[in-house]
Task: structure prediction
Amino acid sequence: METLLALVLEQLQGSVWHMTNSDRFQRILASGAILPEPEMPDCERWSTSQGSRWYPYVRTLGGVSLFDFRDFDPEKYSQANPNSSWREFVPYRSEWNEAVWIEIDFAKLGDAFISGIDLLDRWNTDKVGNRIMPALEAAHLGPLPCVAFKRLFRVCAGNETIDFRAPV
Result:
């Protein structure tokens, strides 16, 4: 797992990404965008079991959660943010035994993109209790169109390789 973690982090660092699973990825392709509120029950979403007060902050903004790995050092980040749940997602969600990582061309998103640092500043200003991965979690407000995808790769449990796919 540590080798796979290192392989995945090597790919993620320096860019902005969305992570999902294969089934959800097919729904994204069918809709033409990553939707802030896709048709799916809350029990299948991250951090919903304790009610809306604990929903991810990006969800309360009507956005899509992204990972801003442009300036990410895993050791420094973990020391500064020991309660962050980033390892639940990287290299893949253990609940899913896989991940489809979608690199986002954030330059195509305009004002709808909120960087990890800017999102944290907004969260601190709003003084809400909703969950956030400080400075690592970024956002796209509204549906994120597939035309903003640069490339993607799939990671599976038990496989120390990464399955790269052509851009969408």
Observations:
- The chain has one domain: 2-165.
- The first strand starts at residue 16 and ends at 20.
- Helices lie at 2-12, 22-31, 57-60, 74-80, 116-126.
